[in-house]
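New to this. Comment on this protein:
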Amino acid sequence: MLHFFGALSSTDSDSEYCKYWVEWFTYAEGNEYFCDVDEEYILDRFNLTNLSNDVPNYLQALEMITDRLPEKALSNEEREQVERSARYLYGLIHARYIITTQGLKKMLDKFKRGDFGRCPRVYCHQNPLLPVGITDVPSQKGVKLYCCRCEDIYNPKSRRHNMIDGAFFGTSFPHMLLQVYPALKPAPSEQRYVPRIFGFKLNAIAELHRWQDEQREEQKKRLGISSTT
């Protein structure tokens, strides 16, 4: 079971510089893949359909995300539980938001800045990556990074990013972005690495070896030498 630990605790000094919870969350170390979800989107109940069934302490978590939770309403232990639920709820909301028009625009800006990293494949020439989930079911798999040039996925380099739930981005996001902004998609890389030994392609060497074996067998037959000799 994958657990999400993508945000700092409320005691970290970074929280002193952020007035709003969403701002604090998105600026926290390890949360660089997330964009800020508009409060209007979060407050629209239609956008949160069925999430109350999946998130413990749902109402309090929602109040925390929207900065409506009274400071002294909870004990430290209760607040920690609500904080965990708030991060989980925000991730689920985020997955829905980033495939909206406004969400795609925000993620486009992050893509252009290279916030998600760049493809490690040599022949992709540092093509920027996009976060993607292998499944839309939460707590199953961590987030992966999709390269639209080689059309393959990679693990994030950072351990913090590896701990982020892939469902917080979903399986459709990068492909939706490229559908809306088709100019972003580069031409597929035609360059492929070809294994060689002393300048010869491995498949060419294998063919040469087979030819040599066949010639050797033919010569043995002509000389009347058994193959088992």
About this structure: The radius of gyration is 26 Å. The longest strand covers residues 129-132. The beta strands are 129-132, 144-147, 152-154, 196-197, 200-201.
